[in-house]
Amino acid sequence: MATVRLADYRPAPFTIEHTQLLFQLHADHTVVDAAFQLVPAGAAEAAPWEFLGEQLELLSIELDGELLAAEAYRLEPGKLVLLAPPEAACCLRTRVKIQPQTNTSLEGLYVSGGLFTTQCEAEGFRRITFHPDRPDLLSRFRVRIEADQASCPVLLSNGNCLETGVIPGEPGRHYAVWDDPFPKPSYLFALVAGALEEVRDQFVTCSGRTVQLRIHVEPGDAPFTAHAMASLKRSMAWDERRYGLEYDLEEFNLVAVRHFNMGAMENKSLNIFNSKLVLADAETATDAELERIESVIGHEYFHNWTGNRITCRDWFQLSLKEGLTVFRDASFTADLHSPEVKRIDDVALLRNTQFREDAGPTAHPIQPDHYQAIDNFYTTTIYEKGSEVIRVLHTLLGEETFMRGMALYVSRHDGTAATCQDFVQAMEDAAEQAWAAGAALPRFDFQQFRRWYSQAGTPQLQIERHWDGDAGTLRLSVRQSTPATPGQPQKEPVVIPLVLGLVGQGGDPLPLQLPGEHAKDVAAATLPAEWGSASRLFVIDRAEQDLLFVGLEAHSHPPAVSLPRGFSAPVRVAMERSSNELLHLLACDSESFARWDAGQVLLRQALLERASGAINDELEEGLVAAFERILLEGDLGDSYRSALMAFPGLPELEDAALAQNGTVDPPALFEAVLALRTRLGDELQGPLETVLASCRNQWQQHWPEGVGDRDLTATIWSWRVAAGDAGVRAEAAAAVSGPSMTLARAGLRALQSIDSPERNAALQAFHDRWQEKPVILDAWFGLEAATPFGDGVERVRQLMDHPRFDPAAPNSLRAVLGGFAGNVSQFHALDGSGYRFMAEQISALDQRNPITASRMAKVFSRWQSYGSLRSERMLEALKQLSATPLSPNSREVVDQCLQLA
Predict the structure, then answer these.
(1) Which of 193, 376, 437, 634 is the most buried (most CB within 10 A)?
(2) How many separate domains does the chain show?
(3) Is 36 helix (H, G, I), strand (E, B) or coil?
(4) Rounded distance, CA 645 to CA 714, Å?
């Protein structure tokens, strides 16, 4: 496998002014005619030009209207080479034949369920026609699609539709011509053709233009598109209001397809979505899924400017568009719903996925410097950590300066292929303007900030407290470090905004007063009120530095330290704080994230002690009392109350166990979770029943109303079912037949670990009700695969033989194999049967769909963590997988994991 390196980047030897494509779609093949208006680059060397191609049959090739002589070009594996490229502008025409009907990779042009669909990001266009297929070559596209009118009545591509009609002399066939006036790279090209229903609406932009909105779905799915359409219109309005960015074409099309590797794709004006992220209402989707759909539709729409109008120069800049757009969609969701809960959800995701990635063999920087298969870099590091680093800039610069930087970035780079450094430079220039104008912003070194993009790993802040009760002074000694990662043994300090506060014994926020001489040496700033009373921002940019606070009450207990407020940077923070101090923060902290985080630290501690065979009664009694106060605290939102009571995820617990003990016993952690849930459900019976009675009155409210009550119901059900409450068990089972998918799935999750008649009946009822809806039935597949008792491997084999299981659909595969990978007791069976089964399935899947297989292969990335016996068994399975023929995608992941052997 060839390694692609950032250091080797060179501009293309030509530009592509215009691209014309003709697709002749047939039942058993497709012919693609391509015409490229090429202009040699002025400083380009007279070297052969390469056009990449995979699984293409070349039928003809012309240059400026003349058939090209055989000695003028060469066909090599994966490419077409022009041996003597022209010195002046020219038109290159090619005709190729492809087989979309047999394309199971779901890249390029493929057929599923009779629907022609494309997926060109990152390198799928080369499966359609010969092309350089690199993101820095932008071109204006005009596309003509010809197809059978009966089987493909709908013909879609990018831009505006100029013309449609029947094809003279070809009975039963018709055509459509699409033109996109905005230059774009090949990865943003899209085509969809098939029998689709259309749902129409309109949006009037801020300048008064009317945009035609269309959602295209498979027959029968139109009734489930109202939420998606409303989400699209909210997204368009928000981008105008918040960023001043208006949609730029006459129409916007969105298509929902079931067979899709991604969640969605931002192709210019023709967004293609996985069906599960479009088709939804309260009966068929949970509250969380409705919010997720709104967020993803917003994400893909926001790409119109941060990804399409400004695209990536090369794939090492992937986070330029993805990290920035995740930041934008997170802000969109926070503005429309609960910013506190959104922040908690985002951090929980980061800790359970990205932190884990940063600590494993597949760790990589936000801007990698090399790769073998770019599809392997669509990761939480690129997306979520990339977003968090942009949020770091927003925290340091403030809203006004950050938005000025965004405006600079857009005005400078609209219509170009840019880099991460271009974005940071725009922010630096905006900061320099603000500093020159005397803005009260902390100063920091942008060159040092850029290390966030080049260094892998999660930075760690180790904080020691020194309290002088006689003087009323508090000194915090902060040490910054980043662990070694593959290929990066040494790390330099990065710029970390640390937001903290002090909480007095009475629960009141205390002022953060710095001595005059110390204030000159510490970059600090007062933050807006939403960060909590008396929050201060400190710039941590050295390996070691001190923060000194004076003017505190002398001869008293030291104040509680509230941090990291707002999770102001994607770092791990370690500070010795007693259980009493954390319980005090859980009860009194005015900053919502730090209050939640205090509870998470306590829950992690209690669960790790249980997993090690001990029970910390004092700590758990403190948690019982804290949760009772939270349940009965009337002025808390119900979604936030539910978040405060949520347990850390098992991946996060594994990381904590590894750091504390040097090894992980996943089944022991799982049993600890069940046992603590049982205790809380038992000892909090009264408050839980009181709150549940109140929640029931709000169950029927339509999303987004009633979300908090349903969230809290899910928590209460899981605790009370664990405690053996037969009435709640029956209520949870009955919810499966009710009108709310949120409550139905909450009931199934509450019953998941209970081997009981109610559980079995509820799962069967769910299956019978939704067996004709694959998007919903995938949830049943996932729950069944995650069943923590019985013969797990045999159960999954039976699921994969189920008549409703679709082995070609990534959603179904992720539901079953992903559900099994999360089935702690079965996947981590001591005999290694779970590991061997997963290796067998990934190997088979890799032959059909390398992208999905390579992502599944990452389940083996932590094989060293699980104790000698499990580690040995997992390594055996990993070697079993490595011994089979693998795609470059999966080979890269497997080899990275085996580097640790």
Answers:
(1) 193
(2) 4
(3) strand
(4) 11
Report if residue 779 sits inside a domain.
Answer: yes
pLDDT at 405: 98
Question: Is the confidence at residue 519, as pLDDT, over 60?
Answer: no
DSSP codes joined into one string, 723-763: TT-HHHHHHHHHGGGSS-HHHHHHHHHHHTT--SHHHHHHH
* Cβ atoms 196, 218 nearer than 8 A: yes
pLDDT digits (tens, 9 = 90+) for 473-485: 999 999 999 999 9
Amino acid at 500: L
443 and 557 assigned to the same domain: no
Compute the Cα dihedral for 890, 896, 899, 901 and give only its sign: negative
Same domain, 680 and 825: yes
Quick one: 3 and 150 in the same domain? yes
| Radius of gyration of the chain from its Cα atoms, rounded to whole angstroms | 28
- Domain harbouring 180, CATH code: 2.60.40.1730
Domain end (from 511, 546, 575): 575
pLDDT-derived band of residue 635, with 50, 70 and 90 as boundaries? confident
Cross-strand pairs, 481: 460
* Token code pair at residue 508: 């009141």
755 with 877, same domain?
A: yes
Q: Which CATH number do you get for residue 856?
A: 1.25.50.10
865 token code pair: 């963590």
300 belongs to the catalytic site = yes
* Alpha-carbon torsion angle 73, 76, 80, 86, nearest 10: -40
Give a yes or no: residue 870 inside a domain.
yes
Burial of 14 (0-12, 13-18, 19+ CB in 10 A): buried
Q: What is the pTM of this model?
A: 0.97
667 CB-side CA count, 13 A: 10
CA dihedral 32, 38, 44, 50 (to 10 degrees): 10
CA 320 to CA 427: how far, in whole Å? 13
Are 439 and 365 members of one domain? yes
Q: How confident is the model at residue 42 (pLDDT cuts 50, 70, 90)?
A: confident
Q: Is residue 294 part of a domain?
A: no
- Residue given tokens 């922010």 in the structure block: 427
Give tens-digit pLDDT for 521-576: 555 566 666 665 689 999 999 999 999 999 999 988 999 999 999 999 999 999 99
**Residue 258's CB: how many other CB atoms inside 10 A?**
23
Cα 169 to Cα 44, 144, 896: the distances in Å are 46, 17, 57
Tell whether the model's pLDDT for residue 258 goes beyond 60: yes
Structure-token pair, residue 175:
């055509």
How high does pLDDT run on average in the chain?
Answer: 96
Element (H, E) at 276: none
Residues 35 and 94 in one domain: yes
420: CATH = 1.10.390.10
Q: Of 551, 575, 599, which one is at a domain's C-terminal end? A: 575
Query: Which residue from 340, 342, 379 is spatially nearest to 360, judged by alpha carbons?
Result: 379
Which domain range does residue 436 map to? 315-454
Q: Is residue 770 part of a domain?
A: yes
Q: Report whether pLDDT(72) > 70.
A: yes
Strands lying side by side in the sheet with 73-76: 49-52, 79-82, 73-76
Distance CA 82, CA 769 (A): 58
Q: Which CATH number belongs to the domain containing residue 482 in this structure?
A: 2.60.40.1840
pLDDT at 619 over 90: yes
* Placement of tokens 């209460």 in the chain: 716
CA distances from 104 to 7, 111, 115, 117, 706 (A): 34, 9, 13, 12, 42
User: Are 466 and 442 part of one and the same domain?
Assistant: no
Are residues 450 and 464 located together in one domain of the fold? Answer: no
**What DSSP letter does each residue of 476-521 carry, written as one string?**
EEEEEE---BTTB-------EEEEEEEE-TTS-EE--BPPHHHHTT
